[in-house]
Amino acid sequence: xxxxxxxxxxxxxxxxxxxxxxxxxxxxxxxxxxxxxxxxxxxxxxxxxxxxxxxxxxxxxxxxxxxxxxxxxxxxxxxxxxxxxxxxxxxxxxxxxxxxxxxxxxxxxxxxxxxxxxxxxxxxxxxxxxxxxxxxxxxxxxxxxxxxxxxxxxxxxxxxxxxxxxxxxxxxxxxxxxxxxxxxxxxxxxxxxxxxxxxxxxxxxxxxxxxxxxxxxxxxxxxxxxx
Length: 227
Known about the structure:
The chain is an alpha+beta fold. It has helices at residues 3-23, 28-66, 72-99, 121-141, 171-175, and strands spanning 111-117, 145-153, 159-167, 180-186, 197-207. Helix 1 packs across helix 2 (28-66) and helix 2 packs antiparallel against helix 3 (72-99). It is flat.
């Protein structure tokens, strides 16, 4: 499938979903599934639309520049806009190519965020607390909800461990690369001599497990009674 065909197929599918949902004659489960797909496609459609609009504008500017009867001042303005748009088009194309890459099926899920203080004592706990507050602010900018599941704080406001649920749109897709060991070098508030300390904290981001309906046959059960 060519590049242009892929873009057209994305636009066609997005419009098809919109028209089908607008009909209002859908089972609740199917409507929910289509709404999720529509929401996932919308950011990609916005990039496709912007890219196609830039291509069309570039063609219009080239036509104006080639017009022998066009005003000289208008031609100069068109050439300036053409240069700016031609420089921006590769960036739009690159963003679009990244958006077209296959997604991890867990990307749309909510996430469980675990932060644990590593080496560094109280300063490591403070660093873990700073990391957690950073993720809380990041979540707030995306409209996500953060709920603490478990926490272990020290006396100076740091965390030796904190586990939280983060829910919202594409949470796991945006947080999954945060997993790993994070380190910081700084003069901690617990240091009176002004020496630089290295502290570490580990971050784990896991996709939230989905509910699964399980049906167990009676013949598969073994019941033992003891007295």
